Amino acid sequence: xxxxxxxxxxxxxxxxxxxxxxxxxxxxxxxxxxxxxxxxxxxxxxxxxxxxxxxxxxxxxxxxxxxxxxxxxxxxxxxxxxxxxxxxxxxxxxxxxxxxxxxxxxxxxxxxxxxxxxxxxxxxxxxxxxxxxxxxxxxxxxxxxxxxxxxxxxxxxxxxxxxxxxxxxxxxxxxxxxxxxxxxxx
Length: 186
Ligand SMILES: Cc1cc2nc3c(=O)[nH]c(=O)nc-3n(C[C@H](O)[C@H](O)[C@H](O)COP(=O)(O)O)c2cc1C
Fold this sequence. Notes:
Blueprint: H1 8-24, E1 34-38, E2 44-48, E3 53-55, E4 60-66, H2 70-77, E5 80-87, E6 92-103, H3 107-117, E7 151-165, E8 172-177, E9 180-184
Antiparallel strand pairs: 1-2, 1-5, 3-4, 4-7, 5-6, 6-7, 7-8, 8-9
Bound molecules: flavin mononucleotide.
């Protein structure tokens, strides 16, 4: 079988390995999953985000965002969300049910911001106007930047995963949590 991954333990280990790789390899397809949330009006919402950090022991996935973005309001109201990953190289889809907490201050945020401040992406978190604000003056490349940052860390605690492998003829699918494994009909 592909990858020589026969047992549930092998596959579980490989899933976390790939997630870890994706958090450090900008070319890994799992680097940019889709984060789906419940909108403030109850309707679904989804967007691409960059996977920044993975901790297999704690079963957590981290993301960066602007504290004023819609996803932060949505997650504050309903912390349950789903992350959808697809890799054509692996032929794997991974859907992850998570509970997300939003952090905007404290020593961890200060330390992270010190680092991000030096990078090109600092401006992502320094715009004077919130993401999604309607422009009144048409499009301009130059953004107004303020001295205050709006950086927020999204910490996603994994609750359950749905793993699907597309195979030639036979597909494999399983539902797994930290300590359970269930094969499913694909
Ligand atoms: C490849 C790619 C990566 C992105 N990464 C992030 C990210 O890490 N964090 C983020 O807040 N937005 C990211 N975005 C932008 C979001 O998809 C989205 O447009 C923005 O965050 C506003 O979403 P919201 O209004 O639902 O909060 C990314 C977009 C693309 C296309």
